[in-house]
Amino acid sequence: MKNTIRKAIIPAAGFGTRFLPAAKSQPKEMLPIVDTPTIQYVVEEAVAAGIRDILMVIGKSKRAIEEHFDRNFELEKELEEKGKVGDLAAIRHISSMANIHFVWQKELRGLGDAILCGRDHMGREPFAVLLGDTLIDAKTPVTKQLLAGYERYHESVCALEEVPREKVSRYGVIKGTRMQDGLYLVEDFVEKPSVAEAPSNLAIAGRYVFTPEIFDYIEKTTPGKNGEIQITDAMRLMVRDRAMYGLRFEGTRYDIGNKLDFLRTNIIYALKRKDLAKDLHAFLRQLVAEHK
Ligand code: G1P
Predict the structure, then answer these.
(1) Per residue in 174-197, pLDDT tens?
(2) Among 28, 111, 230, 262, which residue has the most ligand 1 atoms within 8 Å of its CB, making it the best to mutate?
(3) Number of domains within the chain
(4) Between 237 and which of 97, 205, 217, 264 could a Cys-Cys bridge form, CB atoms 3.0 to 4.6 Å apart?
(5) For residues 237 and 160, is the Cβ–Cβ distance under 8 A?
(6) Is 270 found in the same domain as 141?
(7) CA-based R_g, the chain, Å
(8) Structural domain span for residue 59
(9) Whether residue 100 is found in the same domain as residue 213
(10) What local confidence, expressed as pLDDT, does residue 154 receive?
(11) pLDDT in tens, 234-270
């Protein structure tokens, strides 16, 4: 079947205030999980879903992201001369896997506003949005799962995860009716509700597919939580006019937006690596024994 979603937006303009001092002069999206910048995992997920046209919404001090996805001829030459074939292929892959474009969010007015910066580039096509502070490890990349959900109704779909009740206020939460194959028909979206207000414990998990009409709704959205233009509030407006869906994806989500989760994710990803797992495991066992 032809892939009708060809484009994605990756918002990456935020200051990274939860990652200071590391994020003072380098983008938080470049902080590595093991040896790979977090934003590279996110791009790889989009590419694995057949998306090759990626728009990154960036802000100040984000040059390193541009350089990471550009070719580095000097480095390639050096690796070639040293016969480091594996590293060379990996480096070339970064700059060739997708066509990456950049647009600047001039004022940090929230996630909805960041997505609106992609309007011209997305045109009248449906598109995916992948948030860079979330990695999702899944047999079928979660963006690919969402595309399959989109293909069914040709309406917007967001990834959903059940979270413990007491954590709902960290997320956008839906009110919806369960259909089949993990799909929910959504009636309402609420950004960061209190535990008492939350209509469910189904949280929006940082991956979306939108029909282009979402831009009209973002334009109508007034500042919400934290005084920001929230994408969840735009979705709330849109769902009054047209069907929108949620998908309980298959896979494991790793939040990397705060220091503790970032450290956990690093350890988990390192333990998945053949070249590191054995030694790291031994080290962790020793560490735990010493701290008992
Ligand atoms: C954003 C969204 C929220 C979503 C979350 C997922 O919040 O606004 O709806 O549940 O990402 O990570 P943020 O984490 O940027 O505060």
Answers:
(1) 999 999 889 999 999 999 999 999
(2) 111
(3) 2
(4) 217
(5) no
(6) no
(7) 20
(8) 7-257
(9) yes
(10) 96
(11) 999 999 999 999 999 999 999 888 899 999 999 999 9
